[in-house]
Amino acid sequence: MPVSHEDASACKGLLWAEERVEMTIRQGRFRPGGSLLTPTSFVGTNHRLIIIDRETMGLRTNFEVIDYDHITSVKVERGIMSSSIVVRVEGIASHTLGTADSREEGVIDGVPRRKAEEFVDYLNKKLEREHMEREAGPRS
Fold this sequence. Notes:
- The protein contains two helices and eight strands.
- Helices cover 21% and strands 39% of the residues.
């Protein structure tokens, strides 16, 4: 799975001792919905999703860390020239769009279609694994 060393390094200080970056995806710079100077990135680790939101021409960076068990769904919205990844999270406060049922969405626009589908597939497999582990309960 593709990993951007720049994005992995950017969130290095947030990682737990046993946590590792498994996949990254970055908003396109020149695609419709992209960001020329401040692209947003999603970083998938073996435990959490990290959103890297760059602002002010890259002079400021915000990080949002989301445990996989708080993510309720992930989907790709396909456009003609690019796609968007939509992550629904229960109770997330920023970098999101509120919905009527108190769930929130994090969106990254301007992503190449194939990469968006690959990242969403990766996240859905992580969510399925998390769900199966919760259903199995603690091990004795």
